Amino acid sequence: MSPFRASILIGFVSMIALSSLGQSKEVYQAAFSDKSNFSSVLRFINKNMPSKILILSKTFEWYTECFWLDEISGKRVQDLKDTLEYIMRDDRHPYNVTYFFKDTFLNRLIPDTSKYILSKVCDTMKPSRIILNSKTYQTINTSKNIVGFYTETTQPVFSSDSLFAFIVIHYRYKAGLVVENKYDIKDYDAIGKVSLVFSKQPDGKWLRIWRRFVFY
User: Which 3 state secondary structure label does DSSP give 129?
Assistant: First the structure.
């Protein structure tokens, strides 16, 4: 990348970071106030909906592979037949569990330039502390004393035109069992995640336009 293009990209990244500050809380609200984002995973583990969704106050890191994969991103579909056939056979490849634009609708909606910028924005984002509190969800500082269901979330990341917001919520469950062999059970289990995309409406509200569940 030329120094000129690099400087433009750095400027985009800085602008997106600044413009997103006032919108993040609205996206958190849209994501966590929708019980359907949690009912599926709770059915998956045969548990009831808690009175409040608990969220660790330290955000989960983003992976650049959510938005850009060097193997396929920015390339024509007709040139990727062999690559995609190989990738599709690997259930753990980021294309199958992480990459937003495996979905044809999203792939056409977001230009390649925006995908690349989003990946670079994510690369600059570090875990941070958030404070959220409502009747149906709240942040907690630690999972040490939790028994049951809780979540971790990324920070929302926004497209360069501020019209689309992306967020990933990771599902956790601590069984709180006492076992003779400490290797029989993890302190916490990652049980899945939901990836969400929101579109900003003319009235300023965020509407979910896409969702993907992954259960482990």
Answer: strand
Q: Tens of pLDDT along 182-209?
A: 444 444 578 999 999 999 999 999 999 9
Residue 93 makes CB contacts below 8 A (sequence gap 6+) with: 87
* pTM recorded for the entire structure: 0.86
Angle between helices 112-124 and 3-19 (to 10 degrees): 70
Residue 110, classed as helix, strand or coil, is coil
Q: Residue 64 and residue 72: Cα distance in Å, rounded? A: 14
Residues linked to residue 105 through DSSP beta bridges, in sequence order: none
- Token code pair at residue 34: 């929708």
**CB distance 25 to 134 below 8 Å:** no
Q: ∠69-73-79 over CA atoms, to 5°?
A: 120
Compute CA distances 64 → 1, 21, 117, 133, whole Å: 18, 20, 10, 29
- Cα end-to-end span (Å), the chain: 38
